[in-house]
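Structure request: Pyrimidine-nucleoside phosphorylase, Gracilibacillus xinjiangensis.
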Amino acid sequence: MRMVDLIAKKRNGNVLSEEEIKFFIENYMAENIPDYQISALMMSIYFQGMNQEETAYLTKYMVESGEIIDLSAIKGHKVDKHSTGGVGDKTTFIVAPLVAAAGIPVAKMSGRGLGHTGGTIDKLESIPGFKVELTNEQFIYNVNKFKLSVVGQTGNLAPADKKLYALRDVTATVDSIPLIASSIMSKKIASGADSIVLDVKTGSGAFMKTLEDSKKLAREMVTIGKQLNRNTIAVISDMNQPLGYEIGNANEVKEAVKVLQGERIEDLRELAIELAAHMTILAGIYPDYNKATFELSRIIDEGKAFEAFKNFIKAQNGDISVIEDYDKLPTSSYHVEVTSTARGYIHQMDAETVGIAAMHLGAGRATKDDSINHGVGITLHKKIGDIVKENEVIATLHTDKQENHEITKLLRSAFTINEQPIKRNRMIYDVIK
Ligand code: URA
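Returned structure:
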């Protein structure tokens, strides 16, 4: 088999066989195929696409390029949750203890943030003492004992994806639905869960800006999951504005704790209960959606999810006094108010721009070697549909910088204010099964 023939075959719009996909992944990993030929293949896939079988084979051989986590020592049906990435997305901190309190073992591997989106692991590190690296034995022990553990992703999960993603990033081939779907699913499948619930974001702060593309990506990932024997469901959720009111690290942990304590931060609570409901149904804990959402709301309101969260933090050496009194979490030196320049209703709040403003404050990374400042971030005081007066405070910057003019300007540019009233966004657009 010659790589040049595979490139020509895909360039001409033909379907690659399982053997051909296996050939190029294995030989790329063995360094028998140069980057320039794989780049040409990625560009051919970008233009010609892949059918569902090809996408599933691509995922399968990316999974097999590395370690597949064996969670069989954990009792019960393991369900994982994955978000395609958004701004202010702290749902893992609510969903994970919530389903753990409902009886599902949660063995979760999470990533760090890059660019305008944050990462669960960075946010957890704003809790003093919290350990994001555990031995496999400790990870499994914690899940069996406390029903929940979250650790950083190990280096050897789907290494073919890591190598391909780095190449796609510099060859303008990231934005391809089969390539994104196989990339995400390879890591999820290698992480060892029995079932997977995907939170596919749609809107200005998401990878997929339109509902149509988000549905396509969701369908593709659900099909891959099923073809590789993982029961998979995708929830399509709104990312036309940040989730909740806090963006950053410590302040996102604080907001999640408020929801766990029963505070009604509606969009965040709604999405967390929705995702948790599908997870508990897949695990066979509840028979249907109505029962699941009712019981899960009760578990939050009775404080059981918060209890599970504290047990998990303590088990990974985190200082729970900062959870019980969240004002003790890291904070910034200055708090700068950002005011509205017009009166009217908030029509748009570009989530990506808000995420970039938070990144410039130090809450996120522009490149993967940047360090994170856990105490800085943004608090929003308004959401889409809210009314504002001229000069009213619409956001607060939590900053360690003395000069914040450019960031203030950038954050203001995320808001579009118009005189006409506008309906609030829906949180959940669809569920793909
Ligand atoms: N996230 C991933 O893990 N892979 C992609 O290709 C895009 C987003």
